[in-house]
Amino acid sequence: MDFNPKEIKRRAKADFHSTWVETAKQIPQKSGANYLGEGGKPHPIHELTQQVRQIFLGLGFDEVENPYFISEEDVYKQYGPEAPVILDRCYYLAGLPRPDIGLSEEKKDQIRGIHEGFDFKGFQKILRRYRQGEVEGDDFVESMVVELNLGEDTASKILSLFPEFRQIKPVASKQTLRSHMTGAWFLTLKSLLGQRGLPVKLFSVGVRFRREQRIDASHLRAHYGGSMVIADGNLGFEGGLEITQEILNRLGFTELRFEKKKGTSNYYAPGLEYEIYSGEVEIADCGMYSPIALANYDIDVNVFNLGFGLERILMQQTGREDVREILYPQFYSSLRLSDEEIAENISIDESPETQQGKNLKEALVKAFKDNAKQKSPCRIPAWKGELAGVEVAVDVVEREENSKLLGPAAENEVYVFKGEVYGLPKDAGKLKYDISKIKEGGVKLSFGFLDAVCAYFAKKTEEQIKEGGRQGYLQVKMAKSPQDVNIHVQSKARRYIESQNKRISLKGPVFAAIQYRGN
């Protein structure tokens, strides 16, 4: 069963809790297909991650998982005077303070209006434990359900009475998300050097977070990095460069250029940080850690470090120029859709839910087609039947004089041709321009304007009768967009059409109307 997002959002806005409970009934208990299969497609970043892991493991490096959270104090230990500008690129972690919530008599009356006999003492105990950190935020509603014997929807409604939860503002801590893998290496080395003999050879692959000012073809706020360290009292800089050369060679980079960085990062020793290029593109950075930074962690041996961004490596390997296409192809890759695929992404938006509503829709289509040229004003009986337990009669009508039951575009058919979507009359001679190529070479949809409009009429009649309405008038006039004729073009197809500077031309004078009355 497909959901109707537009309808669900409308209902949830009016009554979230009831809609939350009722829409759960739409989810089937049994699956209608077998979802087990073979040959799934991996993400290229994780294929490269596996390749990098195998290279390091094959060279005798041990894999570690480095901390994601780095304190502000550690950034100062590592970067010294440079720390403030590094912190400017870091994300600080913030949390919501737990509010002190009181229960006034007015608030108690509101709660009693939702649940008579509410256990206020038990609720106050839960609030107290929440403030003390014994109850986590995502367990709060469950605690109310279990300890106060409430339904989920009742607990949620009561919780919504407390604006204190919504008005809390985040408070920043001194913890940051790691912006460089180096920020974590000092912590790991301090812990491990006392546990194992030298040399210590470690590597890690993981995400780094940087507060970039913009997202573009070469900047992301979260990206993957591969990094290694070698710690040993006898280690020299040239030894580190030799290992770096071997690692990058195994990644497919054979022509490398090492350039001394003009402005050394403070956690490296002066003159011992190098940028590594393949052609004109920087692919890695390496160097010897500064004795000052090492001393701040009581590390008394030399440490060599190599780091590289996996996305940049992939860009070089694949020839891609946009890092976003590599990491997030679902959002940024160039989309290509055939006319058949576009047609599959176009559907009637709102349709009746009941069988009676579906019968009404079909009866309206027939009545409109059979009487399309009937001169107005006119009213033609179309359907009689039961909707939501009410006997209902529906007529197709046109109230204006000197017109016809239907407008000229009401019976338009829908075609997709060379990436564009058209609403066209059956009679090609009705238009000033030649549409024969579209009709002959295009993909015709299984429904037209009238099918979609009548589905809308039936749906709304069904809804209004269910909500207590006993008579009404519904009309579609001039269509200027797909929505005006109850046609939905999914975002995937719309995005492709717009990216190709193509058109969606579903418009014209529809002028169709119905009138219903219930007994």
Number of domains: 3
- In percent, how helical is the residue content? 25-40%
Report, as a whole number of angstroms, the end-to-end distance.
32 Å
**Structural classification:** alpha+beta
CATH-defined architecture of the largest domain: 2-Layer Sandwich
Main sheet: strand order: 1-5-6-10-9-8-7
CATH class of the largest domain: Alpha Beta
Give Rg in angstroms: 33 Å
- The protein's oligomeric status is single chain
Percent of residues in beta strands? 25-35%
Task: Specify the number of helices.
Answer: 21
Whole-number mean pLDDT? 92
**Name given to the CATH homologous superfamily of the largest domain:** Bira Bifunctional Protein, Domain 2
Unreliably modeled segments: none
Query: Which outline best applies?
Result: flat
CATH topology of the largest domain: BirA Bifunctional Protein, domain 2
* Main sheet specs: 7 strands, mixed
Query: How many β-strand runs?
Result: 20
Please provide a written account of the structure.
By secondary structure, the chain is of the alpha+beta class. It has 3 domains: 44-93 and 176-330, 2-Layer Sandwich (BirA Bifunctional Protein, domain 2), CATH 3.30.930; 97-168, no CATH class; 342-518, no CATH class. It contains 21 helices and 20 strands. The strands form 5 sheets. It has a 7-stranded mixed β-sheet, sandwiched between helices. Strands 12-13-20-17 form a 4-stranded antiparallel β-sheet, with helices on one face. Strands 16-14-15-19 form a 4-stranded mixed β-sheet. The model has no long low-confidence stretch (mean pLDDT 92).
